[in-house]
Structures are given as structure tokens and as C-alpha cells.
Design a protein that fits this description.
mainly alpha; two-stranded antiparallel sheet
């Protein structure tokens, strides 16, 4: 008789699940209050600052073109000052929204553990350590290896962050891989000029990881022993599914996110979404190719070193 490796059910796991659920619920209430406060105060101030910044930018263009008189150096210094001020005013609202999404995730995970009460008996420490490493790589891939593209009052970017987000899900499974990608790239947003995109990034990168993990491990059991051809095909398919989702969801979610949560006018939100589609498509192609190559190269090396994460346990014969 063939049987999966045993998972252990423990009252301790259920207890921790309830604790996590309570923590998530408390954090949800606190972050909701903070987010509403930040939106009505600092973020409202940032909109006014943004209007002043746009006026200064237009004045700089006029002075550059010789259509207006003015001190160009002073105007550029004022532009830098207003940009920094606007960024600092946007941070509290972005922190609040990010904490709101994180609290929902914690509550959902706590509820799952409390109801299911099962946990894999081994490799938890290894998975946690590797998740931390992948989160750091996601941060570096976005914060360091990127090319900024100014788009109206905002910006988008070509970057390598998605490569490691997808790779994390292939190596660790959907939840841990998605969480690593979400945390790493959200920190990248929060520490750069992309601060207002941080909540959207957290949600989308988590979803990318969950989709890649579902296809690779939930459906096709990629971490089990298979032929090279099977592994290659499933790896590419999982990457394509995750990045295909991102190509559709990133501009679509970005449109509604900017319009309803950031207060960007509808016409501008639509224009930004169209521009983001181009960079998202390029990033997706790069992620599929690079993540597939990295995983196929790392898989045998990690197995040999005893560091391979068995996301889906091998089937064993039990008599």
C-alpha cells in the first residue's frame, strides 16, 4: 500500500493557531484605525504637496525652454525638497495599508492552523531559513537591480525581483515562497520612492507565490522524484502561470488601487496602468526564463547538499 509520509496533528499547533488568529485580529483593528487616520492627515497633505511639486516641475520646464524667467538651481532644489516631503507624508498611509494586508494574512493563517491543526514533522527550520534568504534576494533584485521609468507623477521599473519571488515558490512552496517574495519586495518599496506601491506589492507577490506553488507542488508535485523532462516542463508551466497572473493583475489591481485608495484621477490611473503593462510584461518574460534556469540548476545541487525542501513528501510503500 502506498501512503504519504505522515503529518503530525498536535493540540499545540491548534493552540498556536488561535494565538495567531487573535494577534492578526488585534493587528487588523489597530492597522485599520491607523490607516484611516493617516489617510485623512499625512496622505491628504501629500496630495497638496504633489500639486505644488507638479507646478514646480512645469516651471522648471518653462525656464529650461526659455519661456519663463527664474533661478533654475533654486527651482531644482525646491523640487528635491518637495519630493522628499511628499515621500515622507505618503509613508504612514502605505505602512498602514501594508500592515492591514499583513494582519489579514496572519488571521487567515491562524484560522487555518486552528481548524486543521496539522504540521509537517520536519524541515520547518530549514524552510524558515531559506525563506529569509529568498526574501533578501527579492529585496536586492528589486531595490538594486532595477531601471526606473518615470510615468507622469509616478514611476515604474524593470527589475529582477519577480525572478526570486517565483524561485522562492518553486523551492519552498506557495505560502512560504509567496510570503518571502511579498516581504522582500514590499520592504524594497517601503525603502524607496515606490512607497505608495508597497501594499499592492505585498498582495500581488503573495498571490504570485501561491499560484506558482499551487501549480508546481499542489497539482504536479514538483519536489518529488521525476524525470528531467517532467521537471523542466512543470517548472516552466508554473512560472508562466504565476507571471501570467501578474501580467493581468498588476495593471488591473494597480488601476483600482490608485483610483480608490490613492485618490489618483481615473484618466491618469488608466494611463499609468497602460504604461505599467509594458514593464510588467518584460519583467514577466525575464522572470519565467531566469527563475526556470535557476531552479533547474539549483535543484540537483540542493539535493546533493541535503538542503532541498521536500514540499510534497515522497510516496513510500507501507505494508
Amino acid at each position: 500500500m502506498r501512503k504519504e509520509k505522515k503529518q503530525t496533528e498536535s493540540p499545540e499547533v491548534r493552540k498556536k493557531g488561535y494565538v495567531l488568529l487573535i494577534v492578526g485580529a488585534v493587528l487588523l483593528v489597530a492597522s485599520l484605525i491607523f490607516t484611516v487616520y493617516a489617510h485623512s492627515h499625512s496622505y491628504a497633505d501629500s496630495i497638496l504637496t504633489g500639486t505644488q511639486l507638479s507646478e514646480v516641475k512645469e516651471l522648471i520646464k518653462a525656464v529650461d525652454a526659455g519661456e519663463s524667467a527664474g533661478d533654475l538651481d533654486a527651482l531644482k532644489a525646491q523640487q528635491t525638497q518637495l519630493s522628499d516631503l511628499k515621500l515622507s507624508q505618503e509613508r504612514p498611509y502605505s505602512y498602514g495599508l501594508t500592515a492591514l494586508f499583513l494582519s489579514l494574512l496572519l488571521a487567515a493563517k491562524g484560522l487555518y492552523n486552528a481548524l486543521i491543526g496539522t504540521v509537517k514533522a520536519e524541515e520547518n527550520i530549514k524552510r524558515l531559513a531559506m525563506a529569509g534568504l529568498m526574501a533578501a534576494l527579492c529585496y536586492i533584485g528589486f531595490a538594486v537591480f532595477k531601471i526606473d521609468i518615470p510615468v507622469g507623477p509616478g514611476k515604474t521599473a524593470f527589475h529582477f525581483g519577480n525572478v526570486f519571488c517565483v524561485l522562492a515558490a518553486l523551492l519552498l512552496g506557495g505560502f512560504w515562497g509567496g510570503l518571502a517574495g511579498a516581504i522582500g519586495m514590499t520592504i524594497g518599496d517601503l525603502t524607496t520612492a515606490y512607497v505608495t506601491s508597497a501594499p499592492k506589492t505585498f498582495l500581488l507577490k503573495l498571490c504570485i507565490g501561491l499560484i506558482v506553488g499551487l501549480v508546481a507542488h499542489g497539482i504536479f508535485k514538483l519536489s518529488r522524484t521525476h524525470s528531467k523532462k517532467y521537471i523542466t516542463g512543470v517548472t516552466i508551466l508554473a512560472c508562466v502561470c504565476g507571471m501570467g497572473f501578474n501580467m493581468v493583475a498588476d495593471p488591473l489591481v494597480g488601476y483600482f488601487y490608485k483610483m480608490y485608495l490613492l485618490g489618483v484621477p481615473q484618466e491618469l490611473s488608466a494611463a499609468l496602468a497602460k504604461m505599467a503593462t509594458v514593464t510588467t510584461a518584460v519583467n514577466a518574460v525575464v522572470a519565467v526564463i531566469a527563475a526556470s534556469i535557476f531552479y533547474l540548476a539549483l535543484r540537483p545541487a540542493l539535493r546533493k547538499a541535503g538542503l532541498f525542501i521536500q514540499v510534497t513528501p515522497e510516496k513510500t510503500d507501507m505494508s
